[in-house]
Amino acid sequence: xxxxxxxxxxxxxxxxxxxxxxxxxxxxxxxxxxxxxxxxxxxxxxxxxxxxxxxxxxxxxxxxxxxxxxxxxxxxxxxxxxxxxxxxxxxxxxxxxxxxxxxxxxxxxxxxxxxxxxxxxxxxxxxxxxxxxxxxxxxxxxxxxxxxxxxxxxxxxxxxxxxxxxxxxxxxxxxxxxxxxxxxxxxxxxxxxxxxxxxxxxxxxxxxxxxxxxxxxxxxxxxxxxxxxxxxxxxxxxxxxxxxxxxxxxxxxxxxxxxxxxxxxxxxxxxxxxxxxxxxxxxxxxxxxxxxxxxxxxxxxxxxxxxxxxxxxxxxxxxxxxxxxxxxxxxxxxxxxxxxxxxxxxxxxxxxxxxxxxxxxxxxxxxxxxxxxxxxxxxxxxxxxxxxxxxxxxx
Length: 395
What we know:
Elements: H1 2-8, H2 14-17, H3 19-26, H4 30-54, H5 60-81, H6 85-100, H7 103-113, H8 118-147, H9 149-170, H10 188-191, H11 194-227, H12 237-259, H13 264-282, H14 290-305, H15 308-318, H16 324-352, H17 359-386
Helix pairs in contact: 1-8, 1-9, 4-6, 4-16, 5-6, 5-7, 5-9, 7-8, 8-9, 8-12, 8-15, 11-12, 11-14, 11-15, 11-16, 11-17, 12-13, 12-14, 12-15, 13-14, 13-15, 13-17, 16-17
């Protein structure tokens, strides 16, 4: 399932990886680029509630296979049909629906079939999202300079077909368990679960920072290299962001392991506050030597991703077993609404604060991400404190 996740995600960050290319070729404003970045996660948010809730009633592998097919069609469609802002917007929105039907339904399919230490399985699967991120940036960055951006999206579509093949061959049928009473999209019992909602809201803050910085990081590093008068930066921005995904994967696994040894909310809060502090500084640091910005990029990504596995494991552990699918639906919905809005807000801040050639504009954009991240520990403290149960213990 982790291998399938990586293949399905080859197209997730293909557009952000080539953002400077598309802005030049299609004459996109920062706001328009932010919309194309964000619409991917809007498509996810618009469909994930229904898709994940359905996994309480049908085998999650059916949803996963449908999502892999949609992802393949979106990638191939972008390769052959994308011509500008509107076509890119539609096709990226469709690709977001594919992610909604693969990422969390894939986790549900794994959890339904895994009988070992579920917290560790969730940690590895969630951390593999960062490996998928790295693969998306690295594969796109390797193919596009040689064969053009359409070839990069073609490979992304073929990768999703590979994920479909894995699910078809290796996921054994598994009928769903007992179904909770109520309608399919009745999330009121989930919202009343304060312990689960603490992690859900913190996950929303995490996604706001994560996808805001990932959607714009390549463009920012291109600017940072120019501000440092480095005409041939190494590693190249796309390669660096891909490498940062590998660092983020290791950080997510280590963060999950840390949460199994100390209180989970404490482990999460340490990473989130560290990421918020880095965000408040990073954008204003443009102009430092590119090597310094590259090192800070790796550190920043480690801090941002270090809480990811622990957040999802916390939601899964706090969920009512018969409502695990609907709880994960709310978890994904909140997270990807934030993932949709954040890149758009960053683009608007850049346009309003002086443009993508201004250190101040980039500083304010990253600062906005840090403010959002700092709200995560606040949500944990408030809702877990009111949950009326002992604090989360290790494990």
